């Protein structure tokens, strides 16, 4: 067993950290305050070709694994960019995995290079207001008209839809009452987000104002057949390929935020003097922070294990879910403790930890809730009866 | 023109350095190591010369433990063409490094050797000067600007109270100062390409050099702890404290 990063992984971490250092806390605070997409950061990541880290080499990527992508995402979040930085590039990094797995050669040549180069920005249209985690119940329809499909329906929590030009979209092509299994009859598309037929409405939310989240209303949006990924009716299975790596990346992002919060909290605890001594000299301050570190590092090991399993082509469902759960909780707790360590100052924006705390709830809740992960582990690992 | 760029593996500049309990040196086990920042400036300058067409090949050299190969890889990712690792467990002091570099220079025949003016770990500021003396080459140390014209090189040096410009004839030694350039970030494709660039492995014996240290470290100790400062409420209070407590005015 070897827990050390390889030279190359260490180098990735170092170089990404250097790049992120160009975008300091004031940059991210300003993006959050003004709710503006971090275009300069996105462009810098694209320029260094970091967006292609896990994409195959023949389409402009670096052909590295999810392990490297996770290291990248943790480093970005840890720089203080948190989810504002991570979510800005998240979909370019791995969102197009279904195209890599199920796309035709022509589709890959057409779709992947622009995303790797950052010329295309993609968003994700899966979740719906009335379906949530019960994905097979989605009601957005794709009706076939000759060599085209007509999309009608509503998606929710579609991040970056304000700035994206492409969308990875899941829609029902065969009605629920005419399929044998609920997971059948769903089809995946990667297509142009045609704003003439798709209304994108911003959701006002708690944090990560720099990266928008939206409801998207489709009305007769046409999608050509060549934008369909995989077979008709097989969309759910196509999508499933990307779920475990996505959990790994989100978990890595949560750990990055947690460490960012912990670093700020420790620094403040060392420097802030009350009653003639630094507050960090008190065990009441020390112990909660030390516990956060232990939890974050334990979660990180699970993230790395899940990433390693995925890269080896081994099953990783339990580990990827456990990693997302542990990291989501640990990241949140570290940010909460960071605010508490700062006392009143923790509530002030200029100390940044309140932003971390707001953003740390995202990887805790998304893309799957902690409760559903526990149900999954109970059912799949402990062989307990399904509860829902 | 071939350029030789020595790169040293040192404790990362962000790491809080700790002295070993027995006072024999500093703790390096489990500590993050990086390329000496002044050497990074050297690599950057070499790469810029190559991009301008003034250089044809850049060879990065590092010496010490096998992990120094990582430092060479960093140089390769920035744009160096190949690496030479001189592997040894011996503690390397400037004179030994200069002798090893001299042997490599005789083999490789570079026109220019660009070193960091000093390493941030031992702050010796000696290797470049020693190497120039051993090779009998001209040296332009603490360079903040260099210009190559034909067989000559003009070096602007940062000296006390101003700048000094010297003209050297190639082959020559340059040591870099902080303001020579700002090193680039390696892009992912360049990190990937660096994996495929060759690194030669040598031992000091292959170069006919005995790297045995000539100096003995007697003791390493931490500087005395600084006491926390105080915040003052007004200029009057500050002046008062400077007079009565600090007794500096």
Description:
The complex is a heterodimer of chains A (388) and B (249). Chain A is α+β, with helices and mostly antiparallel strands. Chain A is built from twelve helices and ten strands. In chain A, strands 1-4-5-8 form a four-stranded mixed sheet. A four-stranded antiparallel sheet of chain A has the order 2-3-7-6, with no helix packed on it. Chain A has a two-stranded antiparallel ribbon with strand order 9-10. The mean pLDDT of chain A is 95. In chain B, the strands form two sheets. A nine-stranded mixed sheet of chain B has the order 9-8-7-10-6-1-4-5-11, sandwiched between helices. In chain B, strand 4, helix 2 (68-78) and strand 5 (82-87) form a beta-alpha-beta unit. Chain B is globular, with a radius of gyration of 21 Å. Chain B is of the alpha/beta class. The A-B interface holds A 7-8, 10-12, 14-15, 18-19, 47-50, 52-53, 62, 273, 278 and B 34, 69-70, 73-74, 77, 185-189, 191-192, 195, 228.
CATH superfamily of chain B: HUPs
Main sheet strand line-up of chain A: 1-4-5-8
Q: Can you identify the CATH class of chain B? A: Alpha Beta
Count of the separate structural domains of chain A: 3
Order of helices and strands of chain A: HHHHHHEEEEEEEEHHEEHHHH
Number of strands of chain A: 10
What is the CATH top level name of the largest domain in chain A? Mainly Alpha
The gist of it:
Chain A is of the alpha+beta class and 388 residues long. Chain A has helices spanning 7-21, 25-34, 39-47, 66-95, 97-102, 105-116, 235-240, 243-271, 283-311, 317-342, 353-365, 370-380, and strands at 122-125, 141-145, 148-159, 166-172, 186-192, 198-202, 213-224, 228-229, 273-274, 277-278.
Describe the SSE topology.
The complex is a heterodimer of chains A (388) and B (249).
Chain A: H1 7-21, H2 25-34, H3 39-47, H4 66-95, H5 97-102, H6 105-116, E1 122-125, E2 141-145, E3 148-159, E4 166-172, E5 186-192, E6 198-202, E7 213-224, E8 228-229, H7 235-240, H8 243-271, E9 273-274, E10 277-278, H9 283-311, H10 317-342, H11 353-365, H12 370-380
Chain B: E1 2-6, E2 9-11, E3 33-35, H1 37-51, E4 57-64, H2 68-78, E5 82-87, H3 94-108, E6 112-116, H4 127-135, E7 139-149, E8 152-159, E9 162-169, E10 172-176, H5 188-196, E11 199-202, H6 235-244
Parallel strand pairs in B: 1-4, 1-6, 4-5, 5-11, 6-10, 7-10
Antiparallel strand pairs in B: 2-3, 7-8, 8-9
Helix pairs in contact in B: 2-5, 3-4
């Amino acid at each position: 067993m070897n827990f050390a990063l390889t030279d190359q992984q260490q180098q990735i971490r170092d170089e990404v950290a250097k790049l992120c250092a160009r975008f300091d806390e004031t940059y991210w605070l300003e993006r959050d305050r003004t709710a503006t997409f971090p275009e300069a950061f996105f462009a810098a990541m694209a320029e260094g070709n970091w967006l292609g880290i896990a994409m195959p080499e023949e389409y402009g990527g670096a052909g590295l694994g999810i392990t490297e992508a996770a290291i990248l995402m943790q480093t970005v979040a840890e720089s203080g960019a948190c989810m504002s930085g991570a979510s800005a590039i998240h979909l370019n990094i791995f969102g197009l995995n279904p195209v890599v797995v199920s796309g035709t050669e022509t589709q890959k040549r057409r779709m992947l290079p622009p995303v790797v180069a950052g010329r295309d920005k993609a968003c994700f249209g899966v979740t719906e207001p009335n379906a949530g985690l019960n994905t097979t119940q989605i009601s957005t329809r794709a009706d076939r008209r000759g060599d085209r499909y007509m999309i009608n329906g509503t998606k929710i929590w579609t991040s970056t839809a304000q700035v994206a030009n492409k969308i990875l979209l899941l829609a029902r092509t065969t009605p629920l009452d005419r399929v044998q299994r609920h997971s059948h009859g769903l089809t995946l598309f990667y297509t142009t987000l045609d704003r003439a037929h798709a209304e994108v409405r911003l959701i006002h939310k708690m944090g990560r104002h720099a990266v928008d989240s939206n409801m998207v209303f489709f009305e007769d949006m046409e999608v050509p057949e060549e934008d369909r990924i995989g077979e008709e009716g097989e969309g759910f299975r196509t999508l499933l390929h990307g779920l475990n790596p996505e959990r790994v990346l989100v978990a890595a992002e949560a750990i990055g935020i947690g460490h960012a919060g912990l670093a700020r909290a420790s620094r403040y605890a060392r420097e802030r003097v009350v009653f003639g001594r630094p507050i960090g000299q008190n065990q009441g301050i020390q112990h909660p922070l030390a516990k956060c570190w232990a939890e974050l590092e334990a979660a990180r090991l699970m993230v790395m294990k899940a990433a390693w399993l995925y890269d080896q082509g081994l099953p990783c469902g339990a580990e990827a879910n456990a990693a997302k759960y542990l990291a989501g909780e640990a990241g949140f707790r570290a940010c909460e403790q960071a605010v508490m360590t700062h006392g009143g100052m923790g509530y002030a924006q200029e100390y940044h930890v309140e932003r971390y705390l707001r953003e740390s709830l995202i990887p805790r809740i998304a893309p799957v809730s902690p409760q559903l992960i526990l149900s999954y582990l109970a059912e799949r690992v402990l062989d307990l009866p399904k509860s829902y | 023109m071939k350029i030789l760029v020595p790169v040293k593996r040192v404790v990362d500049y962000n790491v809080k350095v700790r002295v070993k309990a027995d006072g024999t040196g500093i703790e390096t086990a489990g500590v993050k190591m990086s390329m000496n920042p002044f050497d990074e400036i050297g690599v950057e300058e070499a790469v810029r010369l190559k991009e301008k067409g003034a250089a044809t090949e850049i060879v990065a050299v590092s010496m010490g433990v096998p992990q120094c190969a990582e430092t060479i890889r960093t140089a390769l990712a920035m744009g160096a063409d190949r690496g030479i690792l001189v592997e040894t467990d011996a503690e390397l002091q400037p004179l030994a490094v200069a002798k090893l570099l001299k042997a490599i220079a005789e083999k490789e025949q570079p026109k220019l050797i660009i070193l960091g003016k000093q390493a941030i770990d031992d702050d010796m500021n000696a290797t470049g000067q020693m190497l120039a003396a051993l090779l009998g080459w001209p040296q332009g140390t603490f360079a903040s600007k260099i210009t190559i014209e034909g067989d000559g090189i003009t070096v602007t040096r940062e000296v006390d109270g101003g700048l000094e410009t010297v003209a050297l004839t190639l082959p020559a030694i340059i040591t870099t100062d902080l303001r020579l350039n700002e090193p680039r970030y390696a892009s992912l494709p360049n990190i990937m390409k660096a994996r495929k660039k060759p690194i030669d492995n040598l031992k000091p014996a292959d170069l006919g050099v005995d790297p045995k240290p000539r100096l003995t470290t007697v003791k390493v100790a931490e500087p005395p702890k600084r006491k926390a400062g105080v915040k003052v409420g007004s200029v009057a209070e500050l002046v008062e404290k400077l007079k009565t407590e600090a007794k500096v005015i």
